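Researcher: Quick one. two chains, 229 residues in total.
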Amino acid sequence: GENVEQHPSTLSVQEGDSAVIKCTYSDSASNYFPWYKQELGKGSQLIIDIRSNVGEKKDQRIAVTLNKTAKHFSLHITETQPEDSAVYFCAASIRQGGGSNYKLTFGKGTLLTVNP
Amino acid sequence: DGGITQSPKYLFRKEGQNVTLSCEQNLNHDAMYWYRQDPGQGLRLIYYSQIVNDFQKGDIAEGYSVSREKKESFPLTVTSAQKNPTAFYLCASSMTGQNTEAFFGQGTRLTVV
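Model:
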């Protein structure tokens, strides 16, 4: 079925280094790809998203790239800080059946740890 | 302020009892979702609803039930048929359509004792 694969499941970096998380999706009709950050015991917050009409989007230290041909998208965090430590989820808006209804399908998450 | 609210934050249940988790939103969103999160497994979809009085099973619906009598509310009942109910439960809502973000509640941690 339709799914979203996310890698790696855990990522540990030193403060100041960059972190990259990658996701692949299966539905070529997907056009919307959000990234969420979840801190321990809390709900998830949208941090950045990208639509298929662009290949890259940047917001300060966070950027997302999209390759529609290869059906993968990535989250890039530069100059990481300890407060970036959290679980990050990617998602893709996946079409249901052959109709026009879509729902978000999430990757399994990446636990990012930034070591001071 | 608009938002999505889950209650309670922590919930304890005796084995064999049903329990209902509340999820309310005032964002005027048509779609609402319930996810379960276990350590190392990410978010798994239990049920979702895209319109009042209609809902569909997600990937792990067995042992759960939902209702959508009002647009604002999407309660989840964890029944005694759910063999491993201890988990963190997240509710979310969004507008319908292809390019819309989801907003999450703060979650409910259910522990079976």
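DSSP finds no helices and eleven strands in chain B.
Researcher: Thanks, that's what I needed.
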